[in-house]
Structure formats: C-alpha cells, structure tokens
Design goal:
The longest helix is centred in the middle third of the chain and has 13 residues. It is built from eleven helices and six strands. The protein has two domains: 100 residues, no CATH class; 136 residues, Alpha Horseshoe (Serine Threonine Protein Phosphatase 5, Tetratricopeptide repeat). With 257 residues, the protein is an alpha+beta fold. Helix 4 runs parallel beside helix 7 and helix 7 packs antiparallel against helix 8. A four-stranded antiparallel beta sheet has the order 4-3-5-6. Strands 1-2 form a two-stranded antiparallel sheet.
Length: 257
C-alpha cells in the first residue's frame, strides 16, 4: 500500500458524512512529478522547504518545470506561467490531473514567514467581493487586538500590497471587480479626498457605523499605491471601458485630488 512520505499513513482522510454523521474514509493523495506521494496538508506543512529548493522533500528530485530555481535575493520563486510543479491530486472530488501546486506552496511559504499577512489577504478577498461589512468588522477587530493571530495596524492593513498578487492593493482589487461601495469606503479611510467630494450616502453610511477618516498625508494616500505593473487604481479604472467614467471624470481616483 502506498503511504504518505511524511507521516507514512495511508493516503486517505477521515471526514464526517453529512447524512449519517459517521466518519468515512476518502482519498487524499497528492502525487508529485517524481512519483512520491503525500497527503495534501503534509506537503503544505513543508511549503517553506519546497518553495525555496523546488525539490521533493522526500527524494530531493527537482520538481519545477521550466525553472532555474529561486535567486539569491529572492527566496521564493516568482509566480510565472513558465514555472510550475504539475501534480496529480486524488481526492473526494475525483482526480485532478496536471494540478499546479506551486502557487499554493508559494502562498503557504509566504504566510509562514509573514503570519500577519493572513488577515491582510482576507481583507483583500473582502475588497474584491464587495464585503463592506466584513472589512469594517476586520478593521475593528484589528484595532481592538481581537484574535490570536499576528496582525498589523489598521492603516498598514488598509494599504497592504500583496507580493503574491502583483503588488495590488485593496483599492486596485475593488476597482477591478467594480465594487464601488468598497472604493468609497477605502477612499474615506485612507485618502486625502475632501469630505465634500463624497456622495452623501457614503458619508452617512460611514458615520452610521462609526468609521472615522484616518489622518492621511499625501504620501500615504491609497490612490498613490502602484501595483507590480506600475499602475495606480486610477490607471486600472481607465482600462475598464467606461465602468468608472464618472469617478475618473471627477478626478476622484487621482492621487492628491
């Protein structure tokens, strides 16, 4: 019987059946290009090692396709369509052929080295999905120091740029996804845009939940942040075929406006 190279247990996972509430055994078999098998979580627990070496943690075989490996100045390989670790993953949902595990490995390694970024990345998901209530709750928890995980101060969290997502900020993501409520919320909290430039509804909504404007200098204005391609949120909006035409015309997204 093939077993996991880390824990040496069978390549299955015990899950609870929703109908019977009884535990049942389901496949959990991640096969690397070298032929070694791991539980999904067992390999992720070795993410830092794999991300740096790009080698199998069991047999030492080079795993990455079309990769020269990490550089001296950058411990983790850059995300690139030319670099991948193709695997086969058999799970409860079936067999996933040619599953590139490298993005997941890189993310886990980054979060292991930067645990405070977990909340920041959750915040980015909320920005992209338009979850205004979630953003407000997360920022309040951050200010109150709730939770056991390492975190960062609210101003730092609001301006966080994700090195695993082309250095985009929450404002970049909100603009990309057309989340206007989130855009106004972020501008309210982290820009120098005058209060009179905000829609009355946005001002009332912010005041109703007690969201105060941060003391923001021009250099800290969230609109000045640029992604890995050198684009501000205003630049991203300008690429979107008129979706943000009104805000662009009013100069709302322009740094320093």
């Amino acid at each position: 019987m093939t077993t996991c190279k880390v824990c040496e247990d069978p390549l299955t996972l015990q899950v609870e059946d929703e109908e019977t509430e009884q535990l049942q055994s389901v496949p959990d078999d991640l096969r690397l290009p070298c032929g070694c098998h791991f539980h999904w979580q067992c390999l992720l627990d070795r993410s830092t090692e794999v991300a740096i070496s790009l080698k199998c943690p069991s047999c030492g075989t080079q795993l990455a396709a079309n990769a020269a490996g990490p550089s001296v100045t950058n411990s983790f390989p850059h995300s690139s369509p030319n670099v991948s670790i193709p695997t086969t993953y058999t799970s409860e949902g079936g067999v996933d052929e040619n599953l590139d595990i490298l993005p997941t490995i890189t993310e886990e390694a980054y979060l292991a080295a930067n645990p405070e970024a977990r909340l920041a990345r959750a915040y980015h998901v909320m920005c992209a999905e338009g979850d205004v209530e979630g953003i407000i709750e997360l920022l309040r928890d951050t200010e109150q120091g709730d939770g056991e995980e390492p975190t960062m101060a609210a101003p730092q969290l609001i301006r966080y740029q994700d090195p695993l997502a082309d250095m985009k900020s929450g404002l970049h993501l909100a603009v990309e996804r057309g989340q206007e409520e989130v855009v106004w919320l972020l501008l309210w909290m982290a820009s120098t845009l005058p209060t009179h430039a905000f829609p009355e509804a946005s001002v009332q909504a912010a005041q109703a939940v007690g969201i105060q404007r941060l003391d923001t200098s021009p250099s800290e204005d969230i609109r000045a942040l640029k992604d890995g391609r050198g684009r501000s949120a205003e630049d991203v909006a300008a690429e979107m075929d008129g979706v943000w035409a009104a805000l662009l015309q009013a100069g709302v997204l322009h740094p320093g406006a």
